From TrEMBL:
GO terms for molecular function: transmembrane transporter activity. The keyword Glycosyltransferase does not apply. PANTHER family: BCCT-FAMILY TRANSPORTER, HIGH-AFFINITY CHOLINE TRANSPORT PROTEIN-RELATED. Keywords: Cell membrane, Membrane, Transmembrane, Transmembrane helix, Transport. One of its GO terms (cellular component) is plasma membrane. It is a multi-pass membrane protein. This is BCCT family transporter. It is found in: Cell membrane. The chain crosses the membrane at residues 7-27, 47-67, 87-112, 132-158, 189-218, 224-246, 258-278, 310-330, 342-360, 406-431, 443-462, 468-489. It comes from Hominibacterium faecale.
Length: 507
């Protein structure tokens, strides 16, 4: 086997660009924030409607590849490395991060208090439609781009035997470019910038919420020192998991995390208003399925209230920003799976998991609001996410500290597994000569783990707006939407060729 080498050029250029963005935010936060907001405003207006069509195209292409003859194609010759439970669990933990946990409790509040479709705020109709939006945004909006981006990489890696889990390799093979071409390097650099910035912000935004819960549980001050300790603890968890590998590291953590999450939501369902939650989730699911196109394409062209830009276009951008990361990770863990299994496990597994999570957690909170147990709408506006979720958890028939502790543990583990998958993908995209069954060097994965921890720490210390880097990542991720569709359509010839080979073997 050839020695796995590191593409130092891509690493250095990517880190310099991310460092320059971070430095700009630290030393000129107001000017940088204004420029970044203008950038995203321009992107959302110029590419908003095409992004809606991109989302639909991604879903249609996934359905076609899953249920056509190409769905039978097996990725690799060996048996799967992971059980179906672990396989889906690892994808859910990598794709959702900690954001899904706390958003599942409070996202309905936004759709209830400022609804779409011209509904009256805090009306019965707004309450019934609220879960439908969450189910759509965290379901068919988010998951199809992940697996659609993964399939060309998977075919290139497992069937065409191209070395390296890199989009540049796919690009060079698809378009007949020379190895290590300029276009290929640009694609890899964009990948590293988007992933490094986006995941650093995920850590940076998740940590303050965890800090608020730690402060509540132990009665300590919510300070920068506490946030540093939390970042270090999370960094140690995902660094250790990263170092010992997918099979012994992330698989075990994600399995444990999924078990905790299942137990938590089942307890919430049984201990809470069970009938209301079931009806709330079922009704929301029906509205989401029946009105998928309406939800997706409601652009409010007459009033231009900004709902579409604030929510659905944002979520599409966020999915596209995460798609390259998830593509490499899904490719690596899908060895031995068919294309049909990969698509259905990702899209249906992820969507159903989100529906259960948002239906039960959101239904519990909605029932509190409707029955007057707490004014969660005002609480969220006045005191933020942490206080709102703690208030919701205080209604559970177990001590608040216990429920908050379990919730905090889930946040930490979801965050750690997401960052573990990010460190794997970052290391893989700049590692040459990776073959089937190979993984990047553990020491190099640790390098990315450290960098993922240092960037948000530096920004938090300087008081720089972490959301600004997220906005940069979303804006710069837009080109990947076109890359994903282009690669998927262009690689259809690969899928058809592999399907013909499979037909000949079966005859």
């Amino acid at each position: 086997m050839k020695e796995k080498n590191i593409n130092i050029e891509v690493v250095v250029i990517s880190v310099i660009i991310v460092a320059a963005i971070a430095a700009s935010l630290i030393f000129n936060p107001q000017g940088s924030l204004k420029a970044i907001d203008s950038l995203f405003g321009f992107v959302s207006k110029a590419f908003g409607t095409p992004l809606l069509w991109f989302s639909l195209a991604a879903t249609i292409l996934c359905a076609y590849l899953a249920f056509s003859k190409t769905g039978r194609i097996k990725l690799g010759d060996d048996n799967p490395d992971f059980s179906l439970f672990s396989y889906i669990g690892m994808m859910i933990c990598a794709g959702l991060a900690s954001a899904s946990i706390y958003f599942s409790f409070i996202e309905w509040i936004y759709f209830y208090s400022a609804p779409a479709l011209g509904l009256d705020p805090m009306s019965t109709e707004a309450a019934e439609w609220a879960p439908a939006y969450s189910f759509t945004y965290w379901g068919l909006i988010s998951w199809p781009p992940f697996v659609l981006a993964a399939l060309p990489v998977a075919i290139s890696f497992y069937k065409r035997k191209n070395s390296g889990l890199r989009f540049s390799v796919v690009c060079e093979d698809l378009f007949g470019l020379k190895e290590k071409s300029l276009i290929g390097k640009i694609i890899d650099i964009l990948f590293v910038i988007t992933t490094l910035g986006g995941m650093s912000v995920t850590l940076g935004l998740g940590v303050p919420l965890i800090a608020s819960f730690i402060s509540f549980i132990f009665g300590v001050s919510d300070s920068f020192a506490l946030q540093v300790i939390i970042v270090i603890v999370i960094a140690v968890i995902f660094s250790l998991s990263s170092y010992i590998g997918l099979e012994k590291g992330m698989k075990k953590i994600s399995d444990f995390n999924i078990y905790i999450a299942i137990a938590f939501v089942v307890f919430l369902l049984i201990a809470g208003p069970t009938i209301f939650i079931l009806k709330y989730t079922t009704n929301g699911a029906a509205l989401a399925v029946q009105n998928y196109l309406h939800i997706l394409f409601w652009t409010d062209p007459v009033n231009n209230g900004g709902f579409s830009e604030a929510w659905i276009i944002f979520y599409i951008c966020f999915a596209v920003a995460y798609a390259p990361l998830m593509a490499l990770f899904i490719t690596r863990i899908s060895k031995g799976r068919t294309i049909r299994e990969a698509i259905l496990s990702t899209v249906l597994g992820g969507s159903i998991g989100c529906m259960v999570l948002f239906g039960i957690n959101g239904g519990f909170g909605m029932n509190m609001q409707l029955n007057g147990k707490a004014d969660l709408v005002s609480l969220l506006n006045d005191q933020g996410v942490g206080s709102t979720v703690i208030t919701i958890l205080s209604q559970l028939p177990i001590p608040e500290v216990i429920s908050a502790s379990v919730f905090t543990l889930m946040l930490i583990l979801f965050l750690a597994t997401s960052l573990d998958s990010a460190s794997f993908s970052l290391a893989a995209v700049v590692t040459t000569n990776l073959k089937e069954g190979d993984s990047p060097k553990p020491a190099f994965r640790l390098f990315w783990c450290v960098l993922l921890a240092l960037i948000p720490l530096a920004l938090m210390f300087a008081g720089a707006p972490l959301s600004a880097i997220q906005t940069v990542c979303l804006a710069t991720a837009i080109p990947f939407a076109f890359v994903i569709i282009l690669f998927a359509v262009k690689s259809l010839k690969w899928f058809k060729a592999e399907a013909r080979l499979l037909d000949r073997k079966e005859d």
